[in-house]
Specification:
- The chain is of the alpha/beta class.
- Helix content is 34%, strand content 29%.
- It has 5 helices and 5 strands.
- It has helices spanning 22-36, 56-69, 73-76, 106-110, 121-129; strands at residues 2-8, 11-17, 42-51, 77-88, 115-118.
- Strands 1-2-3-4-5 form a 5-stranded mixed beta sheet, sandwiched between helices.
- Strand 2, helix 1 and strand 3 form a beta-alpha-beta unit.
- Helix 1 (22-36) packs parallel to helix 2.
- The longest helix is centred in the first third of the chain and has 15 residues, at 22-36.
- The chain is globular, with a radius of gyration of 15 Å.
Length: 137
């Protein structure tokens, strides 16, 4: 399942839970487009739970979206918080990032804003509410 919701004016939640259907994949791509259309930057909480088996074509389209919007990311997002709640890769073993921490990944390094990783949804909400404001220079 994929679901996007606005938790506050400047906090958006993307939830990927278990297997992703074609409808879920299209909803994810639409949510990315909606995010890019924002005029005020938000904190994006990205929650991943269960075995998120996303279609290769959807992953490909999302990568194209990131390439197309790479130079604009800072205009509509001011931070990303990743939450892994029981996320696994189909083997039932809960995913552990180990040395591949999302805060230091290649993906995080290409983003123009901070990336944080927390364990629970509540931790993510608290961190998003207390996110440091960034002054425009």
């Amino acid at each position: 399942m994929f679901r996007a919701s606005n938790l506050a004016d400047d906090i958006v939640l993307f939830e990927m839970i278990d297997r992703q259907s074609d409808v879920d994949g299209q909803a994810y791509l639409t949510a990315l487009d909606d995010l890019a259309a924002r005029s005020d930057p938000v904190i994006l909480i990205f929650l991943v739970s269960g075995f998120v088996d996303q279609d290769h074509e959807i992953r490909k389209q999302a990568a194209i979206w990131f390439k197309r919007n790479r130079d604009r990311l800072g205009h509509f997002a001011k931070g990303l918080i990743r939450v892994d709640e029981g996320h696994h890769h189909g083997d039932g073993n809960v995913h552990s990032h180990g040395s591949d921490d999302p805060e230091h990944s290649n993906f995080a390094r290409m983003l123009p804003f901070p990336v944080r990783h927390v364990v629970t949804r509540d931790d993510a909400f608290a961190l998003a509410r207390d996110w440091p404001s960034v002054s425009a220079d």
